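Notes on consecutive records. When two proteins share a document, each keeps its own sequence and its own token line. Never mix them. Below: protein one.
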Amino acid sequence: MSEKSISEKIFINLDNSIQGMFIIGNNIDNPILLFLHGGPGMPTLFLEEKYPSGLEDHFTVCYWEQTGGGISFDPKLAPESVSVERIVSDVKFPNIF
């Protein structure tokens, strides 16, 4: 890793829901890309190891493990509350950071 690379796991509180993200890139000066996995429910970052996309060479990628999936899983969350509509709403949530 170079001094300009980044590899961090962070958590944010989004409307009383803890959301996990991995921020990975080879150069923090690259543009930021918010990567939203398909779903709901199944993050895809684990596929990067076997099938590298190369995105991290061109972007600082924020892999957001969305509501109900991966490190954002909450067993207390009602399954019916995990929907595409919620994910879209989460992404539009003001003042994420």
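Protein two starts on the next line and is unrelated to protein one.
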Amino acid sequence: MTTPFIVEMLKRERDIQLFTTDGHYQGRISTPDVSYAPRLRQQVHRTDDPAFCLSLSKRIVSRKILNQQALIRAHTSGQDVAESIRTMKHSLAWVDRSGSLAELNGFEGNAAKAYFTALGHLVPQEFAFQGRSTRPPLDAFNSMVSLGYSLLYKNIIGAIERHSLNAYIGFLHQDSRGHATLASDLMEVWRAPIIDDTVLRLIADGVVDTRAFSKNSDTGAVFATREATRSIARAFGNRIARTATYIKGDPHRYTFQYALDLQLQSLVRVIEAGHPSRLVDIDITSEPSGA
């Protein structure tokens, strides 16, 4: 991409968005644009409406838990995960009864703990882990999903930018410096089908093994080697390029990127009309693996 090309695009008021080959958003080159100011004002206005935020967040969390359950069932039918499934079902039943975001986050947290307990039963002994660990990840499995979540998060930031919303103004996640909370909101329903499933399959297929990770003796942090990182990034790129039936009630198969755009288009309509129930439902219960 040459400088004259960039200048010409800016003269035409065309944004240039920069991505890596695996969909990792890097940033954009653009001229000042106020044409979407009303949309941004509406987005901010909706975040000041507790009822709207809670209703939209319930929809996101419910689907996240349902997709997590679907993934577990896709990888096992054993009794080892039965207790985790029961806990997740219990949490799901209480999601809609939540009276505040704090309550909702509590139920989501209980479901997440049970989910990662179940995932621990789905991996070989050498990849065994004790729950979710972040900043730093303390085992190879958590290191892999953390890397995957980072790729997914940055990809979604880019998609949000394409739809002229602010990635740092969310509804479920609370404001935090440097945290693209809207991206975190949207990625909740995608974690299981895009990242967790991919990591489980990389392990099952022997693409990566524990020798591809190193441990920091001072902090206990476990990180993937450069080769393993490339394998994970490549698997992520392949996964989002495949098609699956992502949208509830829609039999058509889409790539992740196309389905994400549909999700964001529906979010724009939700923000404009104020009806959270109209958010596109990302449903993998009929096709968890996207195969």
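For the record: The mean pLDDT is 89.
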